Amino acid sequence: MEKYVIEGGVPLYGEVEIQSAKNAVLPLLAAAVLTEGRVVIHKCPRITDVLNMVQILEELGFATSFLGGDLTIDGAAAANHEIPSALAKELRSSVFMLGSVIARFGRARIAYPGGCDIGLRPIDLHLSGLRRLGVQINEEGGYIDCVCSRLTGAEIVLDCPSVGATENIMLAAVRAEGETLIRNAAREPEIADLANFLNRMGARVYGAGTPTVRIEGVPSLRGVEYTPIPDRIEAGTFLIASAMCGGELVLKNADAENLTSLIHKLCEISCKIHADNGKIEIQSRGRVSPKLVETSPYPGFPTDLQAQMMALACICRGSTVVVENLFETRFKHVPELIRMGADITVRGRSAFIRGVPSLKGADVFAGDLRGGAALTLAAISAEGQSSVSDLSHIDRGYSAFEFKLRALGARIRRVRI
Ligand code: EPZ
């Protein structure tokens, strides 16, 4: 196991290059299943979730190579429809692959991905959507067996705008006969990125990014080269780091359009932010509490920045209420922040934070990916020394996290325990 050792209390200055979006790359890798051609993902981040997805592709018979930032996938020899259960459990987003594996091979088998660190994470909307497209699904013994001789387009109404369910249904519908409508679809930028990728492959997807996505099925899809959109959650993490630690940052390869809810909040607490042609500059000029942070589906405040924003609220002047509306147990970072001197009370899905002048160094434990990032920011801003374990969570979604932070002046190092 590994941990960060951090000496806190220094401002952050400099430039940081934002990685391609983890939550865009993962569905693109699922989409690569749809073609026998060659797919190249440029600027692909070397993070654990991506490496696990690549391993699943190899188990399905795809040839892959990862040179520099280019991930190449060759699907000519692929023939296996069973997603390995150990990997499926490791990586919940492997469930996205059901749609593309069924579309490619006519069948799919996957172990039921259990709940995980942030909530129950049900997949009922994924399965009901696939059933509407004509997939026979048998759930037995912890496995999901899918069979479909012919996918047929349908109108699907999602009970909630689920990102994964929208993507899973898109990945099957592109090869269905006829037209599919997905109503109450998720509107996250990663959905539009997946649609752009699929359309480059020869698909016909319209309306991605709006509540209604329309797909006209096509008989085949070709290989494609593609560069995913920047990671808005990594960018948001660095913006919040700047607001917490002080100093001035320039984020390169960052799209402010996809971060309007966070940027609005940071300006409220008196950060100065300027964005143009793929860059975001931030100057932290004090910290007045943001009063209310309530997560909701895009374009609302992202749940993936809730923990980081809570860490910031802990050292703002005044009180803040944080409400987590998407996941049931996404407050694992609260007891760890309290260990650092934060003043937080939780009632159900709401956390009541009273700002303190600064946090104090402590040994803290990450319970999930974004909570780990939040605790790292808290430690960098705190007085004294902290450790953050275990880094396997952070490594799932942030590439070279400590290197980027160190280059900005943070005193952070990774040590094996
Ligand atoms: C995606 O997860 C992201 N992961 C998550 O990011 C992100 O937090 C989430 O969307 C919300 O934005 C990837 O894209 C790989 P959902 P997903 O289905 O698709 C309910 C990170 O840190 N729901 O939109 O699993 C569910 O319970 C990760 O990068 C159902 O009820 O999220 C939740 O309340 C964490 N039935 C809500 O929808 C279903 O079948 C949103 O979940 C599916 C979901």
TrEMBL record:
<feature type="modified residue" description="2-(S-cysteinyl)pyruvic acid O-phosphothioketal">
    <location>
        <position position="116"/>
    </location>
</feature>
<comment type="pathway">
    <text>Cell wall biogenesis; peptidoglycan biosynthesis.</text>
</comment>
<feature type="binding site">
    <location>
        <position position="304"/>
    </location>
    <ligand>
        <name>UDP-N-acetyl-alpha-D-glucosamine</name>
    </ligand>
</feature>
<dbReference type="InterPro" id="IPR036968">
    <property type="entry name" value="Enolpyruvate_Tfrase_sf"/>
</dbReference>
<feature type="binding site">
    <location>
        <begin position="121"/>
        <end position="125"/>
    </location>
    <ligand>
        <name>UDP-N-acetyl-alpha-D-glucosamine</name>
    </ligand>
</feature>
<feature type="binding site">
    <location>
        <position position="326"/>
    </location>
    <ligand>
        <name>UDP-N-acetyl-alpha-D-glucosamine</name>
    </ligand>
</feature>
<keyword id="KW-0961">Cell wall biogenesis/degradation</keyword>
<dbReference type="GO" id="GO:0008760">
    <property type="term" value="F:UDP-N-acetylglucosamine 1-carboxyvinyltransferase activity"/>
</dbReference>
<feature type="binding site">
    <location>
        <position position="92"/>
    </location>
    <ligand>
        <name>UDP-N-acetyl-alpha-D-glucosamine</name>
    </ligand>
</feature>
<keyword id="KW-0133">Cell shape</keyword>
<dbReference type="GO" id="GO:0051301">
    <property type="term" value="P:cell division"/>
</dbReference>
<feature type="binding site">
    <location>
        <begin position="22"/>
        <end position="23"/>
    </location>
    <ligand>
        <name>phosphoenolpyruvate</name>
    </ligand>
</feature>
<dbReference type="Pfam" id="PF00275">
    <property type="entry name" value="EPSP_synthase"/>
</dbReference>
<feature type="active site" description="Proton donor">
    <location>
        <position position="116"/>
    </location>
</feature>
<keyword id="KW-0808">Transferase</keyword>
<dbReference type="GO" id="GO:0019277">
    <property type="term" value="P:UDP-N-acetylgalactosamine biosynthetic process"/>
</dbReference>
<dbReference type="InterPro" id="IPR001986">
    <property type="entry name" value="Enolpyruvate_Tfrase_dom"/>
</dbReference>
<keyword id="KW-0131">Cell cycle</keyword>
<dbReference type="InterPro" id="IPR005750">
    <property type="entry name" value="UDP_GlcNAc_COvinyl_MurA"/>
</dbReference>
<keyword id="KW-0573">Peptidoglycan synthesis</keyword>
<dbReference type="InterPro" id="IPR050068">
    <property type="entry name" value="MurA_subfamily"/>
</dbReference>
<dbReference type="InterPro" id="IPR013792">
    <property type="entry name" value="RNA3'P_cycl/enolpyr_Trfase_a/b"/>
</dbReference>
<feature type="domain" description="Enolpyruvate transferase">
    <location>
        <begin position="7"/>
        <end position="405"/>
    </location>
</feature>
<keyword id="KW-0963">Cytoplasm</keyword>
<keyword id="KW-0670">Pyruvate</keyword>
<dbReference type="GO" id="GO:0005737">
    <property type="term" value="C:cytoplasm"/>
</dbReference>
<protein>
    <recommendedName>
        <fullName>UDP-N-acetylglucosamine 1-carboxyvinyltransferase</fullName>
        <ecNumber>2.5.1.7</ecNumber>
    </recommendedName>
</protein>
<dbReference type="GO" id="GO:0009252">
    <property type="term" value="P:peptidoglycan biosynthetic process"/>
</dbReference>
<dbReference type="GO" id="GO:0008360">
    <property type="term" value="P:regulation of cell shape"/>
</dbReference>
<keyword id="KW-0132">Cell division</keyword>
<comment type="similarity">
    <text>Belongs to the EPSP synthase family. MurA subfamily.</text>
</comment>
<dbReference type="GO" id="GO:0071555">
    <property type="term" value="P:cell wall organization"/>
</dbReference>
<comment type="function">
    <text>Cell wall formation. Adds enolpyruvyl to UDP-N-acetylglucosamine.</text>
</comment>
